[in-house]
Amino acid sequence: MISTEKLADVLTNYIVKNKAIEEEDYQIYKYGFLTGIEMLICIVSCYGIAIQMGMIKECTMLFLVFFSLRSFVGGIHMDSYKKCFACSCMVVFLILFAVKNIHLTNMLALGVINFELLIIFFTNPVENINRPVDEKEKKLFAQRIKQILTIILGLTVFLFIMGYNNYLVTITYTLGIIIISMFLGKAKLAKNCRRVLESENSFD
Q: Dihedrals φ, ψ of 128, to 5°?
């Protein structure tokens, strides 16, 4: 079976041969293709889980909320794609399983969602140690987060009025996972920073 990296090579070589990009940009586009392929495999696999559970709509709601926020608030990152893939599939299964088996009333879900939105709003985004963010980007991210949280709040009120319990509960558990991921990401970042400082001090 062809590996994802090999497929990314094939696609990048194709656009280089067709002069769509310069050869010096090869690695940039290869990384883009590789990331896209891996994400597509992960999403298709998660939808496979959702189909088996009969919860395609709930899975779609999960992805809409998760991906809209994750890009801006950050979270924990796995050390390899295999770990990330396994963790993503497990999280999707657990959320869908919880939606199906751990019932919340519409009023309780609404209250919890509002509390979770406040936590995300008042918690600083998780920075990536490999990709520092300047002040201009931080302000832009903060603005985007406010916009997304406002949209989610509006969607939540609409779902509450319409009585769509499954979607409300899906948002509740998804926001919970995002918050957990943010705090785990902060803990991992702090640990990595300490390790870097200890390494620098050992050379003094």
A: -95, 120
